[in-house]
Structure formats: structure tokens, C-alpha cells
Write a structure and sequence with these properties.
The chain is α/β, with parallel strands linked by helices. It has 4 domains: 173 residues, Rossmann fold; 52 residues, no CATH class; 217 residues, Rossmann fold, CATH 3.40.50.300; 73 residues. The protein is 43% helix and 13% strand. The protein contains 24 helices and 19 strands. Helix 4 packs across helix 9 and helix 9 crosses helix 10. The two termini are 48 Å apart. The protein binds adenosine-5'-triphosphate and magnesium ion. Adenosine-5'-triphosphate binds next to helix 2. Its EC number is 5.6.2.4. It comes from Actinopolyspora mzabensis.
Amino acid sequence: GVSPATGLLAELDAEQRAAAEVESGPLMIVAGPGTGKTRTITHRIAHLVEERGVPASSCLAITFTRRAAAEMGERITALVGDRGREVTVATFHSLGLSIVRDNHAALGLPEDLALVDADRRHRILVSLTGDERRARQCVSALSRARRGGEVSGEVSGLLPDYTAALRREGLVDFDDLLVLPVELLRGDPELAEWYRRRYRWISVDEYQDVDEVQYRLLRLLAPAAANLTVIGDPDQAIYGFRGADVGFFLRFERDYPDAPVRALTRNYRSGRRIVEGAVRAIRPESLVPERALRPVGADSEHPIVLHRASDERAEARFVAGTIDGLLGGASFHSLDSGSAEGYETSSLGFGDIAVVYRTDAQSRVLAEELTRRGFPVQKRSHDPLWARAGVEPLLRELGYAGRRCGTVLRQLEQAAAAVAETLGEQAEQLHVAVELLSPLASRFGEDVAGFCREVMLGAEVDALDPRADAVSLLTLHAAKGLEYPVVFVTGCEDGLLPLRWPGEQRDDTAEERRLFFVGMTRAQRRLYLTRATRRGQAAGAGQRTPSPFLAELGDTAVRDGEEGGKRSAARQLSLL
Ligand code: ATP
Ligand code: MG
């Protein structure tokens, strides 16, 4: 019984509407890439507020990145007007920070508590261990201990002194942002109840990538009967390496036994052969039984294009040359001769193109080649923003409140000038950092504190400017949730995709396959999978064989140069 398409839900298809209009209680939406999960949840929230009388302030939407949160907030506001601003759109970390700030007194923290930066944390650890090297070594073990994991006695002995030192300076670290709210709500049932009443409607996008502490926080905020909607795709779970566990997604039906499960099967994003190829690539290790994904959107018949280059320089030249052709038009039109699509996509700009790769190290040669041709690029990884060289000194300089005034953007430039005086030859790093932060800064008007918080909580990819006329260079992890008319997945080689560090025993082929699946499904019209037969001078250099994932693609893919023509079975076999 799907109701007729009226109001806001008219912009959804029947499956999406059936998910969006579930009355109340827990709900799970399981669906593949490009099926409109994010769109459905955005419309569901707008529908609740606009057409069901739910107060916007009682809605909490949790997204995976700050950028996704900003976008979702904008879309909700576009759908329901100014009231949309009262919806809380957060990441787990920003939600945690707001709970910690609201309860700073109970936690023994000052009102102006701050997030510790890497430099200050290092100095605290040096003072505790008396040793630079040990200070560096214990950082990740401390984090594990803080989250309740197993660690050596030495590290667990250090933990109380470390937290005490943080608190003395009015500081919290990233783990605190999740662990403190969990401890707080567990220890104070009345407070937990207050938050449950405050956020009566909760939705979580990309639920397949929650980790244990996030899961525990969510259980406290949304017990079994709560209005909790989780949305995700187990086949896009790619953050296991950093503690996420797709098991929480898979056990949702046990945790919330009354929850209906809705599936979305229509892919609006990608051309037919891209969808078919991606489904073939994930199938051998898919976590979704009977995965259904039907292409209905882009009416593109283009096959996936495979390219084999002699080395990474040649691979970069192929990428740059292909982009040149797509944008320049000449070769593109001959390729598409006569088709209406040729004219449509000939208006492609640099911003329509993403080049993705498994490891950040691969981006250097790609960026060099694109820049050499005069193509603008924006390079983003999934690492935290503060980890990029130059960002922390800028934030510290900006932190001297009251010394400057004007827009954050202006103050950022002034801060850069001041830092440049003290740091001298690292000028290039500083320049890159300012470029990275500028699109974010322009969103914050004169709110320096808000900007600094955003930078501390954000990943590089959050500073991606979707309107920039530049080619996006992204790690596969950073590309999650995004879409581009043209995508190059580079480095499709065994050892790189799936990635194996030299000497590494851990077998993560399934997660690597999901990464490949995520990469492929970012493409709307054109997907290029490239590889090099030799790569690099470092350890593990030398002859490279194709990624085993390529072998699954069958006739959805062709070797480049063969897009137009027919291929014999023999040619198909030699494709790789
Ligand atoms: P991912 O798994 O990659 O995060 P997703 O399921 O969240 O994908 P969306 O990003 O919400 O998918 O949607 C993919 C694309 O399809 C977007 O461009 C979106 O606007 C479009 N789309 C989704 N649903 C519809 C629809 N009913 N009509 C038209 N376009 C749609
Ligand atoms: Mg999405």
C-alpha cells in the first residue's frame, strides 16, 4: 500500500516513498550505490517536518562526513525553508562534542574546553613518558585503550595520567568525543532520557561503517522502540581498518526486532554497463544476498574502459590525455558520433571529473601530470584535516582571539603571513594548507571559533569544493558517497587493489573488493579502470599483474581504443 505521490514524497520513486513514509519506530533501508539512499533520508526528514508536524528541532541526522552534513542541512532547508536549520545534522564526532560541551561542568571541564591538537598531545605524552619516541609510539594504543580495547599494561597504566593531564588543560581528545558521552549517558539515566526526548527522530546514513563506540552511543539515544532510521549498504563498508564493523549493520534486525526493512533497487546514478560491471565485481564476496541493482538513470551505454600503461607516468599521461579529449571535444565527438549524449556531455568541465586511487602516494604523479597540462586539481584524502602539514600552526595562530577581525577568510590569510614569518621555507606547505582551508573558511563568515572547530573535526575531503572548476583527486575512501560524470579508478593492480603492504599478513581482500566497488559506482557516464605494468622504485616495485577484480567484469568492459567496435571472444579473453 504505497500512497499516491503527493507533496515532498512525489520527488521519490515508489520504493523510496515506501521507505520514506514509514510512520514511526525503527526502520532499516538497505540499498546499493546510487539508489537514492541519501536523497530518501533527506526527503523523509523534510516530509516529517513539513507534512507530519514533527518539530524540526527534534530531528537528528547523522552523516559520515562534515561535508555530507553541510549538504544535507542545505537540502533540507531548501525543501522546508528556514525551519530546516533547526534540524541537527551532525557527524558522530560533532554530536559528541556538543554533548560534551553541554555537560562540561559534570565532566569537570571548563566552558571553553578545546580539542587537543597533535602537537600539544605529543608534548603531554613526552612529559609523561620522558621519551620522544615512546610518546609517538603509544598514541594509537592509548586510543585503543580509551575505547575499551586490549593493550599492554604499560599503556593502560599511562591512560589515567594522560587523561588527567588533558583535563588540567581543559582539553579533550577525539576518543573523548565519543567515549565521554557514552559514559555520561550510561551513568545518568535522567540525562539520557532528556537526550532521547530532545532527539525523538534519529537517522544515520552510511550505517555500515559505524564502530563500537558509535554504536553504543546510538543505543543509548535510540532504544529498541525509538524512531531510528538507519541507511546503508554493507557492500560499501570500507572503514574496517579503522575500527568500523559491518556486523552492527547486519545485526540491526536483532537489535530492533520490530523494524521493517526496505530495499531500494533502482540505480539513478550510473550507466547500464557501469552498474552491471560493479555488481559483477562485488558478487563473489557480497554481503547482501540477492543484491538487486537496476540501472534506470543515466541512459549511457558506454562500456567500462580498461587501460594498461607501461608505468605510473604513462598511466598519468593516459588520464590527462583522456581528460583533454573529453573536455576538448574533438576525440569525444568522434567517439560519440551522432548520439545526442555526445552533445550533452561535451559541456563537461574539470569539476565533473574524479581520479581515484588506493593510496595517497599515487596522487603525486597524477597531480604533477595534470598540473603540467595546466589542469586545475583539488586533491583530498580521507585523513583528518589537522594532519595535513601547515594546518595546525595556522589554527594556533588563528586562535589568538581578538587580535584580528574581519572574515575568517581574511584572518586566515593574515595568520598565514604571520606563520610564514616564523616557519620560513615551509612556505609551500603553508600555501597548500591555506588553499585547502579557504573553501571552508568562506562558509564561516566571521565565526573563527566555529571554523576552527570544523577544521579540527573534519577530514580533508570535507574541504572539497563541489563547485570548483577542478579535477578531483581522491583516495577511494574519500570518494565514498560522491558522484561524478567521469571517473578514473587508477592503479587496478594486484597488491595495490587489493592492497597488500609488504610483509602484511592480515587478509582484507573482501574490504578491498568493497573499496573497488565504491570506486566504480561513483561514475555516472564514463568509467576508466587503469593500471601500470611497472610501478615505482620503492620496495615492491617491478612487474605488476592486473587486479583480480578486473577478471569479473566480462563484457561490461573493453580495452581502450575499442569502445566503438565489436570484439571477438578471443579479444575479450586478452582484455586484461
Ligand atoms: P551511495 O551509496 O553512493 O551513497 P545513494 O544511495 O546515497 O548512493 P544518492 O546519492 O542519494 O544515492 O543518489 C544518487 C543519484 O541519484 C543522485 O544524483 C540523486 O539525485 C539521484 N536520484 C536518486 N533518486 C532519484 C529519483 N527518484 N529521481 C531522480 N533522481 C534520483
Ligand atoms: Mg549516499
